[in-house]
Amino acid sequence: MFAPTSSDLVAEERKGISGFAGSNLDQLLRARGIRHVAVADFVTEVCVESTIRDAFDRGYHCTLLSDCTAAHSNQD
Questions:
Q1: Whole domain around residue 58: which residue ranges?
Q2: CB 44: neighbour CB atoms within 10 A?
Q3: Would you say residue 1 lies in a domain?
Q4: Where do the Isochorismatase-like domain residues begin and end (predicted)?
Q5: CB atoms < 10 A from the CB of 51, how many?
Q6: For residue 58, which of 21, 8, 11 has the smallest C-alpha distance?
């Protein structure tokens, strides 16, 4: 397990399916002038899509890191 270093940004734990919901992520990014976000996570069809939509609605330019995401499959 990796721990954040003193130079890493650490957002508060989120309370929803978006990385922005219930967290201080937007404030951390805006305070540093960050306008472009790259998104990677698990459950692409829920959390990742929600985070990208939320970021876009807040005025961020978004890049989906497709090699760094995954989705559930109903295949046997």
A1: 25-70
A2: 17
A3: no
A4: 2-75
A5: 24
A6: 21
Q: Residue 10: inside a domain, yes or no?
A: no
| Residue 63 counted as domain residue | yes
pLDDT band at 76 (very low <50, low <70, confident <90, very high): low
**Entry pTM:** 0.79
Q: Say if 20 falls within a structural domain.
A: no
Please give the Cα distance from 66 to 48 (Å, whole number). 10
Burial class of residue 13 in the structure, from the number of CB atoms within 10 Å of its CB (0-12 exposed, 13-18 middle, 19+ buried): exposed
| Helix, strand and coil in the chain, % to nearest 5 | 30, 20, 50
| DSSP 8-state assignment for residue 25 | H
Total domains, the chain = 1
